[in-house]
């Protein structure tokens, strides 16, 4: 059943993509690096974005077909709708990143307010779990889900992944490939232990998300016919975060399979802040840029590298306990940090 759901969703997204491409080209909604140059861009010809629409429609239609439409799923889909609309607007006008952050927060609030939250995490020191106390910061029963230690932690987790994964779409096929792999592994693990604040099958939602991004990959693969845009980038972090929570607080697993973009994101934010720059404004210092500029890797090699790392870490996650996952996550961070620090010193030395 999961393979069928994955393939149907991939087909829906894959068939939607050429319609979106045609619509964007007809209206000249193209990302043209000559008209709007930026150091972070790696493409050289005008390309439509629109990946958010493709992913969203695949997830929406398959969710209606295969999942129980309860209040939790409705709130998730409303949040996803907001991200898709904002992403489409950004495709056309490149809106301010702080506006995108605000709308992303709104989408996350809808999810948390429905009752979805990080209530516990696996104990890394022994068998069992560690419960997060539901301590409300404001004594308002209607806001207890949101304004509590658990609620604020969940908001941060969703927003963090939305922004970090959105940065990992710099080359053709990079984002949809590793997101599809990550969603599949979360789905496989969710069969072992499915949490129950919801009545719909978390594993099926995982394969729906994986299929939607695979459908986008067919058109984003080199040479790309369309780009993910902010819509697909934010939806990636949004859904992977929610799946991590609903699949039994598989936070360590999720952080493990997206360790590469997470490490790049942490380093990028730290680097920008130390340089006195805004952490939200793009530059050419990401891991995929350094692999391209310093090692001479092509776009296909970079994308496949991201896929293989996610695949390798995903396979490991099926066998490691929580402690092993945490160790692997920090080992990946150390590897990425070491490379990016070397790249920084090498670039500075070469420039001088």
Give structural notes:
The chain has helices at residues 2-26, 51-66, 71-93, 97-113, 149-167, 174-190, 202-220, 229-246, 251-257, 259-274, 287-293, 299-317, 322-351, and strands spanning 30-31, 47-48, 120-122, 129-131. A hairpin with a 6-residue loop joins strand 3 and strand 4. Mean pLDDT is 88; it is low at 195-199. The protein is an all-alpha fold. The protein has one domain (2-256). The protein is globular, with a radius of gyration of 19 Å. It has 13 helices and four strands. Strands 1-2 form a two-stranded antiparallel ribbon. Strands 3-4 form a two-stranded antiparallel sheet.
Q: Which stretches of 5+ consecutive residues score pLDDT under 50?
A: 195-199
Widest beta sheet: strand line-up: 1-2
User: SSE order, as H and E?
Assistant: HEEHHHEEHHHHHHHHH
**How would you sum up the major sheet?**
2 strands, antiparallel
Number of strands: 4
The span between the termini is 59 Å
Features:
352 residues, mainly alpha, two-stranded antiparallel sheet, 13 helices, 4 strands, 66% helix
Briefly characterize the structure.
By secondary structure, this protein is mostly helical. It has helices spanning 2-26, 51-66, 71-93, 97-113, 149-167, 174-190, 202-220, 229-246, 251-257, 259-274, 287-293, 299-317, 322-351; strands at residues 30-31, 47-48, 120-122, 129-131. A two-stranded antiparallel ribbon has the order 1-2. Strands 3-4 form a two-stranded antiparallel sheet.
């Amino acid at each position: 059943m999961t393979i069928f759901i994955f393939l149907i969703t991939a087909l829906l997204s894959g068939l939607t993509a050429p319609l979106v491409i045609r619509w964007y080209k007809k209206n000249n909604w193209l990302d043209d690096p000559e008209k709007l140059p930026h150091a972070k861009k790696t493409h050289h010809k005008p390309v439509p974005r629109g990946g958010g629409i493709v992913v969203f429609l695949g997830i929406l239609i398959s969710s209606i077909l295969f999942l129980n439409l309860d209040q939790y799923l409705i709130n998730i889909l409303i949040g996803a709708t907001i991200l898709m609309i904002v992403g489409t607007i950004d495709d056309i006008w490149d809106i301010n990143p702080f506006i995108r952050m605000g709308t992303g927060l709104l989408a996350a609030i809808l999810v948390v307010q429905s009752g979805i939250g990080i209530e516990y995490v696996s104990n890394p020191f022994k068998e069992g779990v560690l419960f997060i106390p539901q301590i409300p910061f404001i004594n308002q029963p209607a806001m207890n889900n949101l304004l509590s230690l658990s609620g604020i932690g969940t908001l941060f987790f969703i927003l963090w992944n939305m922004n970090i994964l959105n940065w990992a779409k710099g080359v053709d096929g990079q984002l949809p490939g590793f997101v599809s792999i990550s969603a599949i592994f979360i789905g496989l693990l969710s069969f072992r232990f499915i949490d129950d604040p919801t009545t719909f099958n978390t594993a099926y939602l995982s394969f729906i998300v994986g299929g939607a991004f695979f459908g986008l990959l067919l058109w984003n693969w080199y040479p790309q016919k369309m780009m993910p845009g902010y819509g697909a980038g934010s939806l990636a972090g949004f859904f992977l975060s929610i799946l991590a929570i609903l699949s039994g607080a598989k936070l360590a697993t999720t952080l493990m399979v997206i360790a590469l973009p997470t490490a790049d994101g942490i380093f990028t934010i730290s680097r920008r802040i130390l340089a006195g720059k805004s952490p939200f404004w793009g530059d050419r210092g990401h891991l995929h840029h350094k692999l391209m500029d310093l090692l001479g890797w092509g776009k296909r090699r970079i994308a496949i590298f991201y896929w293989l790392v996610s695949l390798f870490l995903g396979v490991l996650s099926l066998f490691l306990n929580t402690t092993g996952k945490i160790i692997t996550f920090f080992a990946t961070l150390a590897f990425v940090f070491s490379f990016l620090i070397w790249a920084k010193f090498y670039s500075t030395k070469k420039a001088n």
